[in-house]
Amino acid sequence: MWAIVGTWRMALEGITKAAGELSAGRSAGDALEIAVKETEDYPYFKSVGYGGLPNENMEVELDAGYMDGDDLTVGAVAGIKDFANPISIARRLSLEKCNNFLVGTGAEAYASKSGFERKTMLTQRAKIHYYNRLKQEQKESKAANLKPYIGHDTVGMACLDQAQKICVATSTSGLFMKRPGRVGDSPLVGSGFYADSTIGAATATGLGEDIMKGLISYEIVRCMEEGMSVQAACEMAVNKLDLRLKKINGTAGDISVVALDKKGNFGVASNISGFSFVYASEKTAPTVYVTELKE
Ligand code: SD4
Q: In this predicted complex, what is the ipTM?
């Protein structure tokens, strides 16, 4: 049995490619790298890779994370500029003995030395979004009232291969107009992603500042370990964090998750309506689903 699940409709093309590879016996790590790269390379996804929206200095700073559920190795990069595929750099870092999580210029130096492809990641379209946003801020007398980011679409994918190995990967440009150097949940193990081949894997998308407060990906895997179904674990983790944040602040940021158990069943939960995700398995052709919020 193999299976793969990914956040948002934008995972479809990548998952479709990966599905062919997985059915031919390719590993979860390879399949994920192929799938996430596909999303990173597509210029019209505004929150991942090439075409991702910039920070307040009009620079595209990218974050990515990767975890191998067999040996629990992790690789991650944050705030990396001008490299085409942060997921490949994160995956390569997971093979290092230490120095597994690199940021900014350190990550760029490593990527350069390791021969990863350089690319200017700021597109003309992203520049237009940036200048429109500046205009909007000038119009609104209190720029602070503008939401940092509307909508969210980090790509996170979890995958089980035919050898029963489970891996997970994330890639994002983070929040539009973030402060230079700001890092969200996506490259943080336990928050944006977690995988353990003996249990399952989970990955998150939404407001990183809130997601990381609940270590939500680890929490989902932990709940599965305690015997919950993958679906119950996702719902429990999202509801618990959402309620807690609302109790403290009166409001909670967007939190959406997808997960896989070791049999390849998926789980999903979100505190917003209209969260879309993609699932494919040995038995299911790549399919896009959209969640509705349960009251
Ligand atoms: C972050 N979780 O950097 C990411 C944002 C996200 O689409 O999901 N963006 O906080």
A: 0.96
